[in-house]
């Protein structure tokens, strides 16, 4: 599954177009390397996303083509959510 689609379906980012933009601007890392929006995600991968002054790190638990809002958080495990001071 493409990383931009995973971010949208897991509801880490609300829209796929925003997920694509954030990824292409270099704010998303897949297993410690900069990711492109077309990067493929597998179960067990770690994703790090920079949201302004926050860095969120998650581990991919499962891949689904679609999901309900309540089930979206089961697609990943939150490893860390830290604020960075400027």
From TrEMBL:
A Pfam family: S4
Keyword Endoplasmic reticulum among record annotations: no
Superkingdom of the organism of origin: Bacteria
Keywords assigned: Protein biosynthesis, RNA-binding, rRNA-binding, tRNA-binding
Keyword tRNA-binding carried by entry: yes
Ranges for domain RNA-binding S4: 1-64
Transmembrane segments: none
Family designation: Belongs to the RqcP family.
Role played: Key component of the ribosome quality control system (RQC), a ribosome-associated complex that mediates the extraction of incompletely synthesized nascent chains from stalled ribosomes and their subsequent degradation. RqcH recruits Ala-charged tRNA, and with RqcP directs the elongation of stalled nascent chains on 50S ribosomal subunits, leading to non-templated C-terminal alanine extensions (Ala tail). The Ala tail promotes nascent chain degradation. RqcP is associated with the translocation-like movement of the peptidyl-tRNA from the A-site into the P-site.
Subunit (UniProt): Associates with stalled 50S ribosomal subunits. Binds to RqcH, 23S rRNA and the P-site tRNA. Does not require RqcH for association with 50S subunits.
Protein name in the entry: RQC P-site tRNA stabilizing factor
Native source species: Enterococcus camelliae
Gene (name only): rqcP
